[in-house]
From TrEMBL:
Keywords: Elongation factor, Metal-binding, Nucleus, Protein biosynthesis, Transcription, Zinc, Zinc-finger
Zinc-finger in keyword set: yes
Cell location: Nucleus
Function, in words: May regulate transcription elongation by RNA polymerase II. May enhance transcriptional pausing at sites proximal to the promoter, which may in turn facilitate the assembly of an elongation competent RNA polymerase II complex.
Protein species of origin: Arabidopsis suecica
Family that this chain belongs to: Belongs to the SPT4 family.
Residue stretches making up the Spt4/RpoE2 zinc finger domain: 128-204
Protein name: RNA polymerase subunit RPABC4/transcription elongation factor Spt4
């Protein structure tokens, strides 16, 4: 597992409360986020980008969360004792470097946020099921109401009997993935191109042959599960 030392985090948000989620005590060896906190934070994010920056004057991490407020001013927030807070800079006085960063932020947002996250299971009991193709984990009721975000061609929300055909309650382990395209675990599990959400590590049975043929007709990849 690769560990990165994050020195600077740049955000473009409308809600300044995100700063409270990002700023952590200096004694913490790393910035760790609880899944519930980051999910709530992401709901308020308009655009965002992570920038790695070395700070020679401070051996510790210099965490800065920048937000674009409704007054159209660039503001910087920093955790206590992490270094000086930068001056607020009006949009009209931004440097070319700052403007370039914001353009990259918008581009990053369009790339990642373009893939809407899948529903998060409302319960983690016996009602959980996993899609046999993409291994997305949701409750039976969620599959019935919204289908599978990665496999809309199954049309589970229209044909409720198909839920039993293409999902299973027999699976091993659950992993929550916020950014599948950048997660080494997601790539290893072959879910890097799917929507952010909860996935199982492995299902215990293959798709029915009829559904495998449907995947071929839709020109989507299906990989048979490995024997456990």
């Amino acid at each position: 597992m690769v560990s990165h030392h994050v020195n600077r985090v740049v955000f473009g948000v409308e809600a300044a409360v995100l700063v409270g989620v990002l700023n952590r005590p200096q004694a913490w060896p790393s910035f760790r986020f609880q899944s519930s906190e980051i999910l709530l934070a992401l709901n308020g994010i308009a655009v965002w980008k992570v920038v790695l920056e070395s700070v020679s004057s401070n051996r510790g991490a210099n965490l800065i969360a920048q937000s674009v407020t409704k007054e159209c001013r660039l503001q910087s927030y920093v955790a206590p004792k992490y270094g000086p807070i930068k001056e607020k800079t009006p949009l009209g006085r931004r440097t070319k470097k700052e403007t370039g960063i914001l353009e990259e932020v918008v581009e990053r947002k369009q790339t990642i946020m373009g893939s809407a996250p899948a529903q998060i299971p409302t319960s983690f009991g016996h009602e959980l099921r996993a899609c046999l193709r993409c291994r997305l984990v949701k409750t039976y009721d969620q599959f019935r109401d919204a289908g599978c975000e990665n496999c809309p061609f199954f049309k589970m929300e229209e044909d409720h009997e198909r839920i039993v055909e293409v999902t299973t309650p027999n699976f091993n382990g659950i992993i929550s993935v916020m950014d599948p395209s950048r997660s080494w675990a997601a790539r290893w599990l072959r879910i890097g191109k799917f929507a952010p959400g909860c996935y199982t590590l492995a299902v215990s049975e293959p798709l029915p042959e009829e559904m495998q043929h449907l995947c071929q007709e839709e020109r989507v990849q299906y990989v048979l599960p490995k024997r456990m």
